[in-house]
Specification:
Blueprint: H1 21-32
């Protein structure tokens, strides 16, 4: 396996099932260092 490094993210999309949102928020802010965008409206 090859090592991968990146200086910045262009786009990250995390699709998750309902329920574990708190853990995903902690991952997004703690590991990725990004803020949670607003959820899109549900049709």
């Amino acid at each position: 396996m090859t090592d991968f490094t990146s200086e910045r993210f262009d786009h990250v999309r995390l699709d998750i099932p309902a329920g574990p949102e708190d853990g995903c928020r902690a991952f997004r802010s703690g590991v990725l260092g990004t803020a949670e965008p607003p959820k899109p409206p549900v049709p």
